[in-house]
User: Fold this.
Amino acid sequence: MYLKELCEMDGVSGNETPVRKFIKENIREYADEIFTDSIGNLIAKRKGESSEKKVMIDAHTDEVGFIISGITEKGFLEFKTVGGIDTRVVVSKRVRIGKDSVNGVIGMKAIHLQKKSEREIAPKISDMYIDIGANSKEEAERYIELGDYAAFNTKYQEMSGKIIKAKAIDDRAGCAVLMELIKIKPVYDTYFCFTAQEEVGLRGAKTAAYAIEPDIALAVEATTCSDVGGVKEKDYVTKLGSGAAVSFADNRTIVGRDFCQWLYEKSQKAKIPVQYKAAIAGGNNAGAIHLSKKGVKTASVSVPCRYIHSPCSIADMGDIEAVKNVAELFLLCTNELV
Amino acid sequence: MLLERLTKCAAPSGRESALCDILKAESEKFADEVYTDALGNLIVHKKGNGKKIMLAAHCDEIGVAVTFIDKNGYLRFSSVGGVYVKRLLNRRVVFENGVCGVIDTENDNKELKISKMFIDIGAENEKEAKELVSIGDMAVFDGAYIQQDDIVISKALDNRAGCYALIRTLQQAGDKNDLYFCFTVQEEVGLRGARTAAYEIEPDIALAVDVTDTGDVPGCDKMEVKLGGGAAIKVMDRSIICDAGIRSLLIELAKQSKIPYQLEVMCDGGTDAGVIHTTRSGVRTGGISIPTRYIHSPSEMASLKDIDACIDLLCKFCSYDF
Assistant:
């Protein structure tokens, strides 16, 4: 799996080019057709045993990050968030900015200069800046342009057991899974969609689904995993190491009972560890795909991911393997569903 | 009575198939074609000449979905659709398989929150509970059907009253126009079914048939719609400004046939009309609404006279020579 390579790349929403390029180079040989559409989705078609139906399998290439919105006289960069980021986790984090991957650190007023009231509230993005070590606006402008993207700079690391630490596991894990699955021959013609701009509103998947007009679709994602201290078991959403998370509903999609149960039960029978995503929360590309044109039967299966949307997430390789296996079952047995 | 049967059926958003089965059985002998699309919308086609008209009534209702089952057999849940948290305590819920439960909350004297609430199905422990329900199972709010003269009180009049009106209209429909009676799914979670149904049908004209609030109970927000005041012809709601031509035509038809009507400007809430009118290159869309009190409660109240007025107006609309 190309997980390490994918998670160490930068691809903030709207700027997915490096990720897309890497994927394209490595899957080209398996694809019968491959193209990039106007919004930046990479779509690879793999012919199946039959062309009677069209299948769409989706993973998004983009990650949350920042965009540079100003440069101060002293050479600090002002920025805005791209996608949903908890502002409490970004201070002092390393970022890479712009085409030349300039190194920067997200800073704010030091703790001993903050009033008590300031220390007790979540910091605002407008009070932070990115420090690239420039001494003046002129110096900063030599490296940075307004509108440049900044992405978290985090190394991929293996931890104890099968646990890995990285940024952007959401949804490079999905991309890595799709890159493996394109190697097998599916039952129906399948469109492997590496979609852009999920984090800012499911935008890429919307146009991809419109173009493809699939009969059935599966979103391969990463999802909240809150099985940590201070959270009651009822609020975990998913558990790390407990397998692929099948959604019955989230804020954007209610998955059809047949499809949802099929994924869960078929996986159980195949001895693939699965769990239900136990909350109606969040949303993913399934939300855009299932409402495309005359409607598409759509489900999603996700990798549980602790500290999602932060500079440093944690996932279990066993869960990623399980997601791959569930998605593979789907591609090999789609005929049981449509 | 059909309306009673329709309200009794449990059909939370995304899990409408039991209700669609009833609607299908009621429609089949009057229709040329009945089918279900990818999202589960039930589409009943009554062929005719003239314009292609889409009549949409959503068939789903609000409810809850199980997210967790604890060691003692209590269920935790999320809401499905616009559930009023303040109205949840000690409400009865019914699952699709008939299992019943009661909602209560952890008693911490703080603000009511769904995250603190649970459903008690009387199970002794986790194992027993899991034999009755599973994660992802959905339930609806119980509320018996009562008829008192012309008034009906029930759960899910939103929008079984609309479904009922469509069935009754279908039974009387001629072939003046090409009619699609759409029982749409997932309206309560964001007008989802109507969007894909409208895309597929590509109608010339559409009407959404749904319930609307009233402004005739003590201390409520101002609204010029009252129970018993007749069919409410929609002017606008938060999701649409209705096509002026359709609105005028509905008023004219009501006047000609002496059908009691009132005009509806609903400031809160949208309807299927909202997504239908922006489908593809746009669809001329209006709405006929059934005045209903206490919407999204187990005791919604409507007037059979108003429902009849809506049916009469729908019939006139369907047989109009456009």
About this structure: Chain A has two domains: 3-63+167-336, 65-152. Chain A touches chain B at residues 233-235, 248-249, 254-257, 260, 276, 278-281, 290-297 (CB under 8 Å). Chain A is about 25% helix and 30% strand. The CA atoms of residues 75 and 137 of chain A lie 4 Å apart.
